[in-house]
Amino acid sequence: MANSLQDVVRVALQVLDTHGLEFASMRRVAAALDVQPSALYHHVPNKQTLLALMADEILARGRRTDPNGPWDEQVSALCHEIRDAMLAVRDGAEVVATASAFGLGAGEPEQRLIRMLSDFEHDVAVTGARTIMLFVLGHASARQMHEQASATGAITYDPSIGSPESFDLGLGLVLSGLRAALPVRV
Amino acid sequence: MANSLQDVVRVALQVLDTHGLEFASMRRVAAALDVQPSALYHHVPNKQTLLALMADEILARGRRTDPNGPWDEQVSALCHEIRDAMLAVRDGAEVVATASAFGLGAGEPEQRLIRMLSDFEHDVAVTGARTIMLFVLGHASARQMHEQASATGAITYDPSIGSPESFDLGLGLVLSGLRAALPVRV
DNA sequence: ACCTGAACACCGTTCAAGT
DNA sequence: ACCTGAACACCGTTCAAGT
């Protein structure tokens, strides 16, 4: 039976999760779909686009409805949501990071962050959202890259490198910086 | 005449700067050295290692002696030094970012940052240095990736994306967060 | 609409052999 | 010590042709 774009993205994510980004080739995805490599180009114009769709799917799978409560708790919850979603797939953070350079994947979460920071001056909200996003993405990415590098034996594993504790500490630092920029309530 | 490892790294950086990371292949570096591809493996065990050496060289070229003055001015100066060094070479930030996952390249600057934060509790200094490093690296990386993506025509160019202004604002946010954690002087 | 089969222009890496 | 030449096992992408 014929495959849909959805099938392609889903199977591509499976290949990514089991083999890692390095071996997530178009040819492997095609093989996993029991199809010739050229068949993929009916669904997608190139690999870059497929990676972007995968990034969207990774983030979509973790999506929860925004909580209410103080802005900092909202932001913290969203950051954990994004982090968990990326860590749920092997090399997921790396895929989201590269896709976000094309304005895809990470753009939507950043908009949600900006909305949560609407009590701030607009410039501060925009800068804050981007800084938080860079931290969340970079932190998860560093963790997964270190995992992969140490699995290959290229380096000795350091459990502190992408730990939840260091994530909360770093995020706390940025949130604390934001609090200092909070305009006084009228 | 025979090439040294230094020559290889230097020419590899030239290839990177003129063609971009995507086309910085071992074969192209070999061609630029007027040598067979296999000859590179006399100097370097694999491409990953060559990239790590390139990352070190990128950062070394921007290295200045640490200034004295208040800690936040020292940190800010160092961050600009690292950023400028990475931006001086096409896709330089991306190369440093991937190399840093292997404990190379970005490790030394991070140690310098920790030293500048020695007035803080050790945990705070370590977290602060890493968070700052993630920001500087991620910010420069996002800028260069966006430049490359928009040059390919895949996306419309947005000059605000890796601007010096947004860099200073984001860095200021993190520094402000650190100030809140500063222990009171005795 | 979805796919096959064959081809093109590339990769990184290995290895025996040369000087 | 530094390099050649040939090979191996891969890539992403294109394109005519099939159903």
Automatic annotation (TrEMBL), chains A, B:
Q: What molecular function terms (GO) are annotated for this protein?
A: DNA-binding transcription factor activity; transcription cis-regulatory region binding
Gene Ontology biological process? negative regulation of DNA-templated transcription
UniProt-listed InterPro entries:
Homeodomain-like_sf, HTH-type_TetR-like_transc_reg, HTH_TetR, Repressor_TetR_C, Tet_transcr_reg_TetR-rel_C_sf
Superkingdom assignment: Bacteria
Q: Which residues bind DNA?
A: 25-44
In its keyword annotation, does this UniProt entry include tRNA-binding?
A: no
Q: Which Pfam families match?
A: TetR_C_1, TetR_N
Annotated ranges, domain HTH tetR-type: 2-62
Keyword Metal-binding set for record: no
Instruction: Identify the keywords attached in UniProt to this record, alphabetized.
Output: DNA-binding, Transcription, Transcription regulation
Entry-linked PROSITE patterns = HTH_TETR_2
Q: What Gene3D superfamilies does the database record attribute to this sequence?
A: Homeodomain-like, Tetracycline Repressor, domain 2
Q: Which PANTHER family match?
A: HTH-TYPE TRANSCRIPTIONAL REGULATOR RUTR (PTHR30055), TRANSCRIPTIONAL REGULATORY PROTEIN (PTHR30055:SF151)
UniProt protein name: TetR family transcriptional regulator
* Organism in which the protein naturally occurs: Mumia zhuanghuii
